[in-house]
Queue: 2 jobs
Job 1
Amino acid sequence: MHPFLSRIERDALPFSSTMNPTYSYIILAGAILLFAGQFFFRYKVMRSLQTLSKKNIGLGVPQILSKRRLYNDVIKDHPEEEEQILSTVGHIRKALAFTLGMVLLMAIAFGMMLLK
């Protein structure tokens, strides 16, 4: 593979021709899913947020992350839009969870690939 490297230097390389490519495929698939998932979730979230902004309903990070604050700050003032607000917050939370999960999966796969 590397004619000018000694055996010790070849063994020190993080990537070799004998390495199992499974982790590389996991990282590649994770990156593609993360990219496609971001477009999907971004479309759903932006469409929901447009509907809420037309009704002058604002959501902030504390309301998205805390159900208690969501109910106290937003839903209490707009009870007729509770279903739409909860749907939008659900889309945002799913997008965050999806992104976190995919990044963790890729980090674990990359770490396992380097340990091999």
Note: The first helix runs from residue 7 to 12.
Job 2
Amino acid sequence: MISDKKLNSISVALGLLLTAYVAQDLHFNPRWYGDKGPGVGKLPREVVSGYMDIAYGKGQGAEAAKLYYTPKTIDLTPQAVYRADSGPLTSTVRQVVAEGLNVVVHHCVEATRGQPAHEVVDMFRTWNGRIAWRKTLAQSLNGGTCDSSSMNKKVDLGLKP
């Protein structure tokens, strides 16, 4: 049997641990440091969606980077196709995979600005509502369109809807 004194000691210890956890969480929360970026407080998938809406949907890659990148963002392919500012791009999202802080977007960007259509895989790692790491893989469709791409075919996995 546990004595009252021992139970009180355990309760105080658990209370202190809980208080320390809350204080630590508040200390490292970016909202407490004035970070009011558009992705702060959102899920990684929402952060990437917001970034892509500005970068691809509005054609403002530099503005999207300014809003969503951290000062220490690592961009492994900064010269990838469609990174320069331009008009809006037509992009068909084929698949989005989100696992933890990582988001991968497979999409097809229609031909524009003298560039042929490309199947593009954008990989992102997010941190505190911002993009901390990015890599782009692109495959030209050599004059084809997104609709004619072999990646546009439906795959029957035998699963019932």
Note: The chain has a mean pLDDT of 88.
